[in-house]
Amino acid sequence: MAAATNILSGLLIVATAASCIPQYHRLLTLGPSTGLSVASVLIATLVAQVQAANMYYLFKASPLMESGAPVATPHSARDWLNLFQILVQWICSLFLLALVIYLPTSTPPRVLSKKVAVGLWILHVLLFVISIPAGGRAQDLVFTVIININATIINPFFSLLAAVAFFFQARVVPPAGQPNALSKWTLGFQCFTFLLLAISWPFRLILPDNMWKNGPQPALYLGWYPWVGWATVNNAILATGQGIMLLLYIRRAGLDSSISVIDEHRPLLGSDDL
Q1: Between the CA of residue 37 and those of 33, 83, 102, 105, 196, what are the distances in Å?
Q2: What total of structural domains would you count in the chain?
Q3: What is the pLDDT of residues 220-267, one digit of tens each?
Q4: Tens digits of residue pLDDT in 200-229
Q5: What are the protein's UniProt keywords (predicted)?
Q6: Domain region containing 80
Q7: Are 260 and 185 in contact (CB under 8 A)?
Q8: Distance set, CA 182 to CA 174, 230, 248 (Å)
């Protein structure tokens, strides 16, 4: 069972990277990044960075978590594959952000300028880098405070931001027939990949049984989501968002096609009247 799970995890890592290649190719071929929201891409990158920070905290704290830990000690092959999955998602999102920042846009960003986006990304990285030496050793009180703040406040906040990001994205999608960095293939491929990841994470990042019983409040919040559930929730949000964008793209393309057919027949109708 473990070997089969590891093989599937490896395949999902490859699929994650492969799902981004059509988007990169379309951007580089098209030239401008028209159709992609700077704010939406930045949020996706920050969410991926938060996930990378989560894995760092889990790896560092696992030897001292007396009530059990989602990451084994010593680290198993499953743990390393999970870490690689998170890192691949972060690298892919970071490269997309770099392309969106570097390539020109036909219209100014509506929500966030590129300079502000770069500044926010740098600030987020610096805060995480500073927290590493500030946290000290895994057994120190400061590290305990940092990891609990990350689990109970930062994780839900960025999951909420991931949902909000698609409202920004929906605002900048151009009509069909105009240059667009998105396509039904890029959206569909990524939606399917994120959906597979959301389904797979509960079987890959597992909360020990004794961690479900900590505290009087519902275990779903106190245990599952802050420590391991964020991976499932974030990917489910991304899959839902890409699916909604795919439906919007198909619907807009259908409406524009109908309008163009009507416009083509208007001269013929006019000539019949004459």
Answers
A1: 9, 28, 13, 10, 25
A2: 1
A3: 666 788 888 999 999 999 999 999 999 988 887 765 555 444 444 445
A4: 999 999 887 766 665 555 556 667 888 889
A5: Membrane, Signal, Transmembrane, Transmembrane helix
A6: 2-273
A7: no
A8: 10, 27, 11
